[in-house]
């Protein structure tokens, strides 16, 4: 022991100075002047409102994707002490002093900076030279569009970071497979691959494209392992199960955790929760929860209820009636029953209250003990204020003549008897004896006489005319195939009626309810509903001044003006490095042509390059060309407003291909020393042009210095570019 103390304790470390230098340069390029401009830049107006809602713990739904990206932006605001108080209403608005601009933009900038060393390491792990890897990193470093997108409160740089991290992690795992299977580092990189893929999907659903690519590559690699006789059956099974765990199960669990944190943070009611079900709304603090807290859970005969349509699109609405009747004749000449109108009303109102009545009894109060209503029971629904019964009969509805009119029955002493019996069908029941529950049960009302189903048909886009106060139509749907959500209703507000007299009952209907029954949704129930809303909720896509088509991106025929100084000509644009974009396209074309050439020659048993070089070539194409294809081609199938920044993940993979092509040409096609020298000189000249274009467009990448009108006109290299020039 004493002998050990006589020797100095020495720690040795191997530091790749290329990585250090690239990381420092990446940080400088992305963090320099990060607080400038101190104004809302383009989509910061969109993401900023979500950051404010996180700061205030108010629930929201964003149909653009999962919550991880929003939470990371909110983390920047939290670290900077942001209180969420800022009105995100227009691009160019000056930030108030309480907004920590540098902190809000920090995480996207860090992610963009780290993409530079990640590009270097990816090419090294693909077994290309350090010179090629350095070239790839410098191209990412000097790409103007990537710099612009990473310097603001936007998500693309974070998405690209996780995509590249997933690719690098898988490559490191695969390279360790040959000699260090099941070692600590092998496990680390495999697990990190799954987590990074999940994070990419959690930022934007575009990350799913790269995740699918890596799953396909992993499947192909495992297929090759199956043919390797050195692996035993037990070993292959272990490898398979480990990959399923790391690349499927853990990513799914990680993805769920994003929503768990999201829902834990956003526990307060807000404007967005109205599109959620009543059960979801009741789980939030404030809003509906303040109204429904402590309501009776089981609906009984005599219960006073409001019925909300489950569909909730284009707006939430409740079953409603009022004293007005349907006109004797409609504008088109058709006649009506002249009964009391029944509609779906998009606002809370005392006329939304109904009483559940037992057809065999006259009382409108809950007995003691209460008699719960179960699936299959026959009920009558009595309108609370007018005391008329919900009714339908073989009379055409006002807007939907193929469906039956729904009304509250008025006895005119004519040959039209009341038909007011309804069968309660609990759609989400667990058994045929289930009790009708407040908020939780989704119910169909089937008319006993005609088998028509109570339906809110106004969701098809039409509302009643002036005589119906523009409220939504309710009909009896005769052909009720399946369980469309417009036919489903849930009890939202509920009390046990105590007053038999009408005047006392009206006072009761106007008063709030409080009883001691809680209704808590499980996390999985909330996750399932929120995930479904994100996937199905679509805002109307409107044409944007800077929207573009996927074909415009390859040749960069479009740009986006992100910000313009209110008084000077200083401005920021999303514009790429023209030389890099053109070179990336040429590289993809060269790779495709050479691959076809090699394949045809190999078919003829002619091998132009060694087998190890061929495997390297195919592997590089799988990751780079495959990464470009899966992140670009799906946009041709999407019906959404597209912007140039959607192309950046695909562009990143294409940029990685450029030095791969250059090294391949130098190693295998430049046979003589003279050709190699000439090729090297050409590469130096080409890279100088990349740097020149970067410097030329630097003022509109960083927004400073301000350029003159002449200088701005000189930057309009394409007529389709919209460089902003103030009128003199």
SSE map:
Elements: H1 2-6, H2 17-31, H3 44-55, H4 68-79, H5 101-125, H6 130-141, H7 144-150, H8 156-177, H9 184-203, H10 207-226, H11 233-265, H12 278-282, H13 288-292, E1 303-309, E2 318-325, E3 340-345, E4 353-357, E5 378-383, E6 390-396, E7 404-408, E8 422-426, E9 443-447, E10 453-456, E11 472-477, E12 489-496, H14 502-510, H15 523-536, H16 550-554, E13 560-564, E14 571-574, H17 578-603, H18 611-632, H19 648-669, H20 673-702, H21 709-714
Antiparallel strand pairs: 1-4, 1-12, 2-3, 3-7, 3-11, 4-5, 5-8, 6-7, 7-11, 8-9, 10-11, 13-14
Summarize this entry quickly.
The chain has a domain at 303-496: Trefoil (Acidic Fibroblast Growth Factor, subunit A). It has 21 helices and 14 strands.
Describe this structure in words.
The chain has 728 residues and is an alpha+beta fold. The chain has a domain at 303-496: Trefoil (Trefoil (Acidic Fibroblast Growth Factor, subunit A)), CATH 2.80.10. The chain contains 21 helices and 14 strands. The protein has a six-stranded antiparallel beta sheet with strand order 9-8-5-4-1-12, with no helix packed on it. Strands 2, 3, 6, 7, 10 and 11 form a six-stranded antiparallel beta sheet that branches. The protein has a two-stranded antiparallel ribbon with strand order 13-14. The model is unreliable at 514-519 (pLDDT under 50).
């Amino acid at each position: 022991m004493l002998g050990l103390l006589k020797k100095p304790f020495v720690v040795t470390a191997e530091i790749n100075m290329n990585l250090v230098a690239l990381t420092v340069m990446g940080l400088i390029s992305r963090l320099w002047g990060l607080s400038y401009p101190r104004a809302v830049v383009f989509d910061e107006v969109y993401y900023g409102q979500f950051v404010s809602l996180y700061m205030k713990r108010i629930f929201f739904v964003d149909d653009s994707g999962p919550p991880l990206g929003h939470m990371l932006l909110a983390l920047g605001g939290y670290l900077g002490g942001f209180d969420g108080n800022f009105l995100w209403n227009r691009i160019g608005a000056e930030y108030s002093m309480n907004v920590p601009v540098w902190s809000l933009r920090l995480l996207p900038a860090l992610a963009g900076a780290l993409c530079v060393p990640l590009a270097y390491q990816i090419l090294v792990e693909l077994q290309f030279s350090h010179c090629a890897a350095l070239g790839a990193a410098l191209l990412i470093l000097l790409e103007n569009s990537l710099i612009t997108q990473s310097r603001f409160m936007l998500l693309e740089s974070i998405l690209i970071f996780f995509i590249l991290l997933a690719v690098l992690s898988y490559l490191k795992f695969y390279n360790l497979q040959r000699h260090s299977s099941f070692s600590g580092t092998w496990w680390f990189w495999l697990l990190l691959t799954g987590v990074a893929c999940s994070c990419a999907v959690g930022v934007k659903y575009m990350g799913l494209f790269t995740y699918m690519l890596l799953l396909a590559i992993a499947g192909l690699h495992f297929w090759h392992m199956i043919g390797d006789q050195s692996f035993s059956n037990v070993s292959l099974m272990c490898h398979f199960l480990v990959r399923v765990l790391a690349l499927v199960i853990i990513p799914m669990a990680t993805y769920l955790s994003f929503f768990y944190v999201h829902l834990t943070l956003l526990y307060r009611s807000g404007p967005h929760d109205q599109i959620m079900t009543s059960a979801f709304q009741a789980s939030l603090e404030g809003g509906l929860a303040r109204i429904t807290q402590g309501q009776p859970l089981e609906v009984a005969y005599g219960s006073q209820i409001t019925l909300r349509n489950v569909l909730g699109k284009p707006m939430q609405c409740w079953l409603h009636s009022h004293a007005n009747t349907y006109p004797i004749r409609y504008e088109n000449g058709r006649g009506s029953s002249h009964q009391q109108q029944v509609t779906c009303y998009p606002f809370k109102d005392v006329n939304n209250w109904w009483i559940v009545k037992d057809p065999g009894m006259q009382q409108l109060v809950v007995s003691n003990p209460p008699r719960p209503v179960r699936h299959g029971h026959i009920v009558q629904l009595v309108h609370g204020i007018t005391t008329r019964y919900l009714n339908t009969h073989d009379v055409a509805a006002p807007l939907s003549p193929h469906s039956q009119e729904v009304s509250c029955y008025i006895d005119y002493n004519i040959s039209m008897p009341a038909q007011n019996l309804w069968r309660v069908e609990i759609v989400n029941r667990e058994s045929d004896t289930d009790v009708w529950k407040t908020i939780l049960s989704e119910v169909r009302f089937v008319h006993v006489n005609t088998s028509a189903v109570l339906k809110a048909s106004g969701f098809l886009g039409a509302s009643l005319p002036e005589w119906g106060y523009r409220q939504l139509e309710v009909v009896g749907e005769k052909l009720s195939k399946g369980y469309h959500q417009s036919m489903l209703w849930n009890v939202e507000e509920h009390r046990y009626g105590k007053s038999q007299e009408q005047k006392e009952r009206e006072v009761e209907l106007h008063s709030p309810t409080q009883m001691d029954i809680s209704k808590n949704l499980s996390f999985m129930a909330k996750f399932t509903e929120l995930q479904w809303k994100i996937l199905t909720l679509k805002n109307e896509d409107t044409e944007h001044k800077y929207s573009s088509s996927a074909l415009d991106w390859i040749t960069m025929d479009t740009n986006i003006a992100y910000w313009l100084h209110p008084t000077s000509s200083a401005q920021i644009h999303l514009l790429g490095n023209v030389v890099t974009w053109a070179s990336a396209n040429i590289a993809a074309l060269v790779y495709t042509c050479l691959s076809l050439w090699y394949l045809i020659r190999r078919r003829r048993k002619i091998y132009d390059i060694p087998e190890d070089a061929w495997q390297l070539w195919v592997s590089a194409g799988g990751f780079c060309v495959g990464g470009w294809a899966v992140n670009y081609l799906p946009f041709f199938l999407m019906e959404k407003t597209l912007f140039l920044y959607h192309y950046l993940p695909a562009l990143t993979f294409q940029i990685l291909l450029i030095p791969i092509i250059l090294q391949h040409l130098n190693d295998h096609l430049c046979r003589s020393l003279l050709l190699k020298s000439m090729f090297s000189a050409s590469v130096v000249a080409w890279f100088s042009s990349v740097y020149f274009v970067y410097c030329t467009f630097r003022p509109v990448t960083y927004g400073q210095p301000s350029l003159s009108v002449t200088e701005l006109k000189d930057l309009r290299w394409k007529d389709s570019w919209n460089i902003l020039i103030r009128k003199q």
